[in-house]
Design goal:
- The protein is mainly beta.
- The chain is 0% helix and 57% strand.
- It has strands at residues 2-7, 10-12, 18-26, 31-39, 46-52, 57-59, 67-72, 77-82, 91-99, 104-107, 111-115.
- Strands 2, 4, 5, 6, 9, 10 and 11 form a 7-stranded mixed β-sheet that branches. Strands 1-3-8-7 form a 4-stranded antiparallel β-sheet, with no helix packed on it.
- A hairpin with a 4-residue loop joins β9 and β10 (104-107).
- It is globular and about 45 Å long.
- It starts with a strand and ends with a strand.
C-alpha cells in the first residue's frame, strides 16, 4: 500500500506561481512511477505531468514550458512547480503513484488550485 498526501494548492492570480507537493509513505520502494493529474469541474481527470523511475518525464501539451515535475527521493516527495498560471489551470490536482508488479494506481486526496483575478 502507498499513501499520498498533497499540499500547496490555493488561490493565485493569472501569471502567478504555485508549487504543489506530494509526500509518499508506505511501500514506497514499490513505486514505479509518480505523476500529477487534474480535474476541472465538469471535465474528466487528465494527465498533467508524470515522472517515471528511469528518469523520463512527460507533460500535457497545455502545460509544457510552464510546469515542471521534480522529486526529492530523500523526502519521498514529488513536486509540481507551476508558473505562468492561467484561468484554465483551475482544477483539483491529484498526486498519482503506480506501484507493484501490476502497476496499481494510488491517489492522493487532491488539492484545489484556483487561478483568478
Amino acid at each position: 500500500q502507498v499513501q499520498l498526501v498533497e499540499s500547496g494548492g490555493g488561490l493565485v492570480q493569472p501569471g502567478g506561481s504555485l508549487r504543489l507537493s506530494c509526500v509518499a509513505s508506505g511501500s514506497i520502494f514499490s513505486i514505479n512511477a509518480m505523476g500529477w493529474y487534474r480535474q476541472a469541474p465538469g471535465k474528466q481527470r487528465e494527465l498533467v505531468a508524470t515522472f517515471i523511475s528511469g528518469g523520463s518525464t512527460n507533460y500535457a501539451d497545455s502545460v509544457k514550458g510552464r510546469f515542471t515535475i521534480s522529486r526529492d527521493n530523500a523526502k519521498s516527495t514529488t513536486y509540481l512547480q507551476m508558473n505562468s498560471l492561467k484561468a484554465e489551470d483551475t482544477a483539483v490536482y491529484y498526486c498519482n503513484a503506480r506501484a507493484g508488479s501490476n502497476w496499481k494506481n494510488y491517489w492522493g486526496q487532491g488539492t484545489q488550485v484556483t487561478v483568478s483575478s
